[in-house]
């Protein structure tokens, strides 16, 4: 147990989701720890809806310290940096504007911090979907569940926590966030890879440590799944975008390395295509066959497209009106 009162900052980066943002904030009001143990930092990433008014209205009667910060340069990575700079806590935690935290969320986070005597660099947990529209009969909960299993453990070098449920010691985040500002959602434009890049930086900067990112399933949040995320079109766009970002994050250096990378991805794409074709009878629903077998093919096509220096931009959700 630390001698002083540890302060945790929960950062919510938001863009045009005022109808869901209030639920995210209010879920942090009913926590089982005293309100002086944490604060909420809302980063408004140039929203054009009622976000500002809603946050300021909630702030008037908030039992918890809330800071409202406006960031005009759009981008999730940029917003996270803005939130980190505004945070006063020794640890910062990120949840999405369409997430809801259970009432013991911050209590569990503080328990983890104190268990490791404030020496844990990063930690996080499971993300469980909740649905804003009826779920198609082919759609599986696992498509929107983020987990590293049912037992707590330290993550390996090639693993990463998910952005809607991850905490960092503030001084560590200061060292690892560089280079991630260009990744992630930018307004309506689909963007991915910002979480993975953070943990790649973490493992690169501290190569001798095995206890860098702690995962525990008892620390979880609920994450909204709207109807547009339960479509084949959206899921394949995510696969393709993921492939493009994978290339951008690990861009090979040198003409020969770039050439080898492209040929390797083309060969893997052909192999995955053959594998998908011959697995058609292993799925009871054609939608599941498309996602689970052709999704990896589409991801490789995204990597090839980025290799050819001609990335495609997608919109993640229906444009705000």
Keywords:
alpha/beta, 9-stranded mixed β-sheet, Spore Coat Polysaccharide Biosynthesis Protein SpsA, Chain A, 321 residues, 18% strand, 9 strands, 39% helix
Care to describe what's here?
By secondary structure, the protein is α/β, with parallel strands linked by helices. The protein folds into two domains: 220 residues, Spore Coat Polysaccharide Biosynthesis Protein SpsA, Chain A; 77 residues. It is 39% helix and 18% strand. It is globular.
> How much helix is in the residues?
25-40%
What's the shape? globular
Biggest β-sheet, characterized?
Answer: 9 strands, mixed
| Average pLDDT figure | 93
Class derived from helix and strand content? alpha/beta
The proportion of residues in beta strands is 15-25%
CATH superfamily of the largest domain: Spore Coat Polysaccharide Biosynthesis Protein SpsA, Chain A
The whole-angstrom Rg is 20 Å
Low-confidence segments, given as residue ranges, are: none
Distance from N terminus to C terminus (CA atoms, Å) equals 49 Å
Supply the number of helical segments. 9
Count of domain modules: 2
CATH C-level label of the largest domain: Alpha Beta
What CATH architecture of the largest domain would you give? Answer: Alpha-Beta Complex
**Could you state the order of secondary-structure elements as H and E?**
EHEHEHEEHEEEHHEHHH
CATH topology term of the largest domain: Spore Coat Polysaccharide Biosynthesis Protein SpsA, Chain A
Please report the total strand number as a whole number.
9
